[in-house]
Specification:
Helix content: 25-40%
Distance between the termini: 60 Å
Domain Mur ligase central: 107-285
Organism: Flagellimonas nanhaiensis
Family: Belongs to the MurCDEF family.
Number of helices: 17
Pfam family, one: Mur_ligase_C
Number of strands: 20
Radius of gyration: 22 Å
Strand content: 15-25%
Protein name: UDP-N-acetylmuramoylalanine--D-glutamate ligase
Shape: globular
């Protein structure tokens, strides 16, 4: 009997353990941290052996295959040991895909991937397809494959998950954009991170499709030097495409082989140029899996957007409060600042992943009247914007940040939480940060 060891007892780990058990593996789950009570119960229900708070090497190094959670870096000594012994270390995406014949739409990118994933899922579901949404979002993909294998999957896939694939091959791959992010995990080399994103297409052949932003110079240059086998479907806000999607006089035009679809940007429920791109990517993916044009047009008008992504929370004294906690890198914050038309009180900071704030400078000069730093170490933010912004305040809790924002904002302003950083210094995750933001506003 093959032995499957799962490192990390979170959503993806437990899902993989369930699928592994179902497929006849001897399964062991090991988490260096604390496994949540709800997950312990699930593991016990399926009679899966687990340990929490430690890694017992003797029980791990005898594995045939190891699934490691995306949060564990490749350079951890235990992972290095496994690799040096020739034991295959893979991600959940790789493991689960072996056990399904479903059509897979895989979506990656530095920003926009959650919106594009949720919108694509929304279009396919409204189109009557038996579709599941998983990956970096929501429920475990492996658990879905074990419990109710769908005909189609829309997967949001991070670069860390792509690092752990060998044979994973989506029918439709989407790269929304590539900007520097998580460089701490890629030896601070941008090209390592780019290569990681492009792994989504590495096993594709000429019967598969790659949808990508052709306005993104990083993607364009990489494709010139590293051509892929799949059929290319570029999308652009700037120029007409032979195949793919483009913008013409306020109309989005989609063309895939012999199918064409046109729709006015007026029907989009989401604001901002980046959401025109997300809509193009999702629309192309929906056409490829044969969702009807009318359905696509109609469903785009009912899409509600993603929690913690430019989410309007409340208006108090004619000041609007916007929760963009999901903006964990500079490029995501760029979109937020670009899209807001009012003077901005900007709440930013957290765990800096090697950020370069210079691309925000023109927007900050033009639109931001005050910066409220919210993080344990705000040195880089102060260094970047200290000379440009008259008012910078350091805070160390969400309640404090909101009280300051309330004091300094005036009628017609926007208070924007768009941190450009990870959240782990003061919060559990970006959801917790966004929820605390919403709670603090309700207390005003």
């Amino acid at each position: 009997m093959d032995r499957l060891v799962v490192l990390g007892g979170g959503e993806s780990g437990v899902g993989t353990a369930i699928l592994g058990k179902q497929k006849g593996f001897e399964v062991f789950v090991s988490d260096k941290g604390e496994i949540k009570e709800e997950y312990k119960k699930v593991l016990e229900h399926f009679e899966i052996e687990w340990e929490s708070g430690k890694h017992t090497e003797a029980k791990i190094l005898n594995a045939n295959v190891v699934m490691k959670s995306p949060g564990i870096p490749d350079k951890v000594p235990l992972v290095q040991q496994l690799v040096s012994k020739g034991i295959s270390v893979i991600s959940e995406i790789e493991f689960a895909s072996k056990y399904t014949n479903a059509t897979i739409v895989g979506i990656t990118g530095s920003n926009g991937k959650t919106t594009t994933t949720m919108l694509t899922y929304h279009l396919l579901k409204d189109g009557g397809l038996h579709v599941g949404m998983a990956g970096n979002i929501g429920d475990s993909y492996a658990k879905m494959v074990a419990e109710n294998d769908y005909d189609e999957y829309v997967l949001e896939i991070s670069s860390f998950q792509l690092d752990g694939i060998t044979e994973f091959k989506p029918k439709v791959a989407v790269i929304t954009n590539i900007t520097p992010d998580h460089l701490d995990r890629y030896n601070y080399k941008f090209e390592n991170y780019i290569a990681s994103k492009f792994r989504i297409a590495m096993n594709q052949d000429e019967s598969d499709y790659l949808i990508y932003d052709v306005d993104d110079e990083v993607i364009r240059e990489w494709l010139k030097k590293h051509p892929v086998q799949s059929k290319l479907l570029p999308f652009s806000l700037k120029e007409k495409q032979e195949q793919g999607a483009w913008l013409e006089n306020g109309t989005i035009k989609l063309k895939v082989e012999h199918k064409t679809l046109e729709m006015s940007t007026d029907i989009l429920t989401l604001e901002g140029q980046h959401n025109v791109k997300n809509t193009m990517a999702a629309g192309l993916a929906a056409l490829l899996v044969n969702v009807r044009k009318e359905t696509i047009r109609k469903s785009i008008q009912t899409f509600q957007g993603v929690p913690h992504r430019l989410e309007k929370v409340l208006k108090i004294n004619h000041v609007e409060y916007i929760n963009d906690s999901k903006a964990t890198n500079v490029n995501a914050t760029f979109y937020a600042l670009e899209g807001i038309k009012r003077p901005i009180v900007w709440i930013a900071g957290g765990v800096d992943k090697g950020n370069d704030y210079s691309e925000l400078m023109p927007l900050v000069r033009e639109k931001v009247k005050a910066i409220i730093c919210l993080g344990m170490d705000n040195y880089k933010l102060k260094e970047a914007f200290g000379n440009v912004i008259d008012l910078m305040v350091e805070t160390y809790s969400m309640d404090e940040a909101i009280k300051v924002a309330y004091k300094i904002s005036e009628r017609g302003d926007s208070v924007l939480l768009s941190p450009a950083c990870a959240s782990f210094d003061l919060f559990e995750n970006y959801e917790d940060r966004g929820n605390q933001f919403k709670e603090a506003i309700k207390k005003l």
